[in-house]
Each structure stands twice: as C-alpha cells, then as structure tokens.
Design goal:
heterodimer, A: alpha/beta, TIM Barrel, eight-stranded parallel beta sheet, B: alpha/beta, five-stranded parallel beta sheet, three-stranded antiparallel beta sheet, about 40% helix, about 20% strand, globular
Chain lengths: ~300, ~290
Amino acid sequence: MTSSLADVASSNATLRAFLHGLPGVDRVGADQRAATLGTRSIKTTAKAAAIDLAIRMVDLTTLEGADTPGKVRAMCAKAVHPDPGDPSVPKVAAVCVYPDLVAQAVESLGDSGVKVASVATAFPSGRSSLDVKVADTALAVAAGAAEIDMVIDRGAFLAGDYLKVFEEITAIKAACGEAHLKVILETGELATYDNVRRASWLAMMAGGDFIKTSTGKVQPAATPSVTLIMLEAVRDFLAATGRKVGVKPAGGIRTTKDAIKMLVLVNETAGEDWLHPDWFRLGASTLLNDLLMQRQKMATGRYAGSDYFTLD
Amino acid sequence: MSKTEAAARLAVRKTYKLYIGGAFPRSESGRSYPVTSSKGEFLANASKASRKDARDAVSAARKAFGGWSGATAYNRGQILYRIAEMLEGRRAQFVAELAEAGTKKAGDVVDAAIDRLVWYAGWSDKITSVAGAANPVAGPYFNISSPEPTGVVAVIAPDEPLLGLVSVIAPVIVTGNTCVVVASERAPLPSITLAEVLATSDLPGGVVNVLTGSVKEIAPWLAAHMDVNAVDLTGVADEDLAITCEQAAAENLKRVLRPAAADWYADPGLKRMTAFLETKTVWHPTGV
C-alpha cells in the first residue's frame, strides 16, 4: 500500500478517489463505542497512574488575545511545577502559545524538558495565503518552537479541493524543519465523521506527526467519538504505511474523568503503544487543575478545593 | 360479559430525589432507603446520597456563590419572602407530611416555619448595619467594618423536619452564603418537598442543595472538603461523629457551629447569621 499511497497525491482526482474510497464511519456505532468505553471504571492505583500519565500528556495552553508575557511566564512555571507544594507531581508535556510569545516561553522553560508548542498558519481560522502561513510558521520555528500546531484550510477541504489542503500541509511541514508538526482538523467544522476520517488520512499522508481535533475555538471540540475515529485512523495508517502518528484531542476536556476516558479510548483503540506523551497529548488549560485536585484527593483522602491551586 | 366496576384510580406517588444545583437528580450511587411514618408504616423510598453526591452539591454551591453573594441584600430578602409565600401555598401538603412524620400540632409548626422565613427575610438589609461598624481611628481615614458571607456552608439539619430545617437554612443564605444541607435522616420527606418550594421561589439553583441519607456517612466528607468554608453541626446527635467532623473541619480552618440543643420556637436571635459572616475592614482616606 505504501507505493500506492505515494501516487495518491498526484492529483485532486486521485486524492478524492482514495479518500472517498475509505470505509464510511457508522455514526451510531462510533458514538456507542465511545460511550461504552467511557463507562469503564478506573479506580485506586490505576486511577493514580492514569492521573500522572494524563498530567505528563497535557499541552498547557493559552491562546487568548489578552495573553501577556507575564501570563506565559506564570504558565511556564506551572508547567514545570504543576503543584509547587508536591514535588512528586510530574511535568506537563508542553506549553502551547501564539507565535509571538514563543520566545518568552522558551526563555521561561529553559532546560526543564517541557517543550514549547506554537500554533501557526493564521490560527484559528486558517484564512490566509500560503505565503503568510509559511511565514507564520517560520516565525514560530525561529523563535524556538519545538512543535507547530497548524490548522487545515477547512474551506478548501469542504469544497473538495483536497490537493490544496495536502500541498499546504506539505509546505508547512517543510517550513517546520526539525519541529514536530501537529495538524488541527477542526472536527467541529467538518460536519461528518466520514470527513473526520478523510481529513485524518489526508493530514497523515501529507506528513503530519500528530493529528489534533480542534483549535478549542469551535464547539463541539474534542468529543470522545471524534477522538475514537482519529485513533482508528492512526492505527490503520501504521498498519498501512509503517509510520506512527500521534493524536491530540484539544478543547472541552475539563475534568479528570474526561481525561481518563480519553486514555481508555487510546488503550482500547490504538493500543498501549500510544499511551505515552510522545504519541498522545491532551490540549487543555483548566484540565490540569482538576487533575491536581483529584491527585490531592487521592493523597489526602479529602476533597480538594480550587482555592488552593493557581488560577490559569 | 359480567358487569365491572369502574377501575379504582391508581394514586401517582412522588419519587423523592435529591436537590442539587436546582435540579432533582437521583443519587449517583443509585441507592435509596425506606422512610416510615412514626407508626412504622412505609411512606416512601428516599434517595440515599453518597459522598459523590455531596461533592457535586458542593461544586453546585460554589458555582452559585458568586451570583448569590453579589446579589443585593434587598433582592435576597425578596427571595426569602417569596419562599415564605410559596410555603404558605403548600401549607396543607406540609401539614400532612409532618403529621405522617409524627410532628404534633403540624399546622402550628408550618406557620412557625413560614414566620421564621419572613423574619429572616427582613434581616437581609439590616444585618450589615447591626454586625458592621464605622470605627473611629486616629488618622485621616474612614475605617469601616462590614460583614461578608463566609462562602459554602455545609449544614447538618436537626431532626425537626420543617421548622428546624428552615431555621438552619434561612440564616445561612440570607447573608449571601450558599449551602449544602443534609436533611433529617429519620424524616427526610418534608425536606424534599421544601426543595420543591425553593425551586419555585426564584432562588438561583445551587444556593441551597438538599441531600438525604446517612448523616454518619456524608457529614465527615463535607467537614473535610477543602472547598467548604463552614460547617453547621446542629443535627449531629452522635458525640463521636461531631468530634470527628470538628477535627476534619480544622484542616482548612472552617468555621464550625455546634450549638447546644435549641428550642426552635424561641426567638432565634442573630447568632446563626453572624456565625457565618466574616468581617472585612476597609481603610479609606478622607478627602483632606
């Protein structure tokens, strides 16, 4: 299949033929499968392990117009020591900021091991020319971003211009150089689960290292069903090509329960190999505090209060 | 075909559930327990709340705190008065439920509960003047002490199904606190009917949350909860349990109210209101 995949992107017609040739998604079945896996009960030591793993997978994110260097500094401090009162809490995977704040984040994080991710390509709408998007990416990479979160051109995708989306991802991948490329599909705007599957394959074939559900600016964002479909896509893509791609649900994951449901989905769909921060991330901001509160509840036996944790 | 009597109508019995965040959910645990009348007859099954219901109730109370404490005293007083109005309208229902629970002179008890609400409603815009002060200071400053609500209060209600319940809830919420109430374990049904009154009185959802079930099971979790700011142990009859709760409450320095046995018909005084107020003192420069 590897050789045939190479030819797929030769024209819009071949891409369409391939993407529309993917098996359709059974919407009811996918929703039900995701809901069933969401009922798994994870308790005691397994829960403690899941909470720590989830903390290690968090991409601590701030993507507001009102972001300041001070806020980014504070967030970086939190990324390295999520709970200053408890040194046993692991570091998060990365912080995610706008390109102009990458330099600040890189400086604040130093050699802590927490990576800096940056959104790029006219985030969140993606409505700009390819030149601007490449320049946006280059800006973030030059400032020291280790990971780039790009958005696909949903307008082109929905209009059926798959080749444009493909070439855009390829161009951004080239602009990334060493940096990892996460491709945001914005599933909330793709309308159907079939489109989610097609966009996942398109992004992986174009060279994305991660596929990410959402920008966090559109509802619905990272629903369990959509994450399930994307996890199936990376599993099938590995089988077809031998290349492993990561998944990042982002947006709407606010509670520990939501996060643990995601981990169950990963384990049961893509497999245990994906249960690592290199292959699965949780894009979130408020989630981290809930994880810390649950962690404290498990340690002390009493319910934690948000007064005792930093505001985001 | 034989002649048949018109079938007797089947009574539609009420399902007694919890009251959390303005909604009436069943216990997360799915448990319930039978409630009997004072003569031992089965009345209904009440939900048996778990610690997770208590946790949900605390988050609902926390969520409601900003809006409720920020509402004007005038508005809070109006809403308390509205609760009294709604209670008056359901007088017959409460009299019947209290009689089943074994309360003597149930009519008088309901009247006293309504009057108690009206009494506390009147205090909403006066307590600040009584509990606050303009302090004389040796400097060019106004120095003003004003009472502020404490936050989320966990209330273990006494075994006095309506009057006792109203007498512990009203003073907590009139000053702007929100609360989680654990109803009388023996006679929980009037508390859920009271929740129906609260739900139709313009009281924002989450200001009062009512749990029914085992006090021994729920109270320690509420007393230890780091997001609860005060506990009212009025209804904890067991000495050991009260001590356990007090110790748990010490962890985040909760305010604890553990009064001696009360006569619910007596003039309540200001104690219950001031117990859940904190004094904020502000120095403000005078224009020189």
